[in-house]
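Fig. S4 source data, part A: sequence.
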Amino acid sequence: MFRSEDVALYSVTTDGENVWELLNLLGNSQMVMIEQNASSTVAEKGSVAKIRRLEEWKQRLDAFQFKSHKFGKAAPQLTLSLAEVERLVDEKARQHGLRQPMLLEKMLQKADRKIKYFDECHANFDIILSNIVDLVKTRAVLANIYTLMPKNFG
């Protein structure tokens, strides 16, 4: 949503069972911004917190994709339509015998483990590159060290 666009504030109330589906519907429209009301119930605050958490995860995964270029391999670009996403989520939920919110938690836990591993590899890669640079410098010095030695050395 761009700041220059006109906005309107609406209040939507639904029962607890339909919150997830309603938030999915609103979020998928990409035309709403969800705001937490100070008098919100615990369930409503939890939903807003989940949305923020998912936005943070998207940023983490975007950063991961950007860092992957350092390894000389770009992370594959994958664009899915809303229908494809819904189908994949439903399929995975059925495979694991989980409801969508629990499936999402499992997916985020798995992604967290993989990103932590990637970050470790990324740090090691930077260390390896630094060591390579040091070794190349040492080789260059050693290859030309004789020019610094006195003529009658040895």
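Fig. S4 source data, part B ends here. The longest helix spans residues 100-143.
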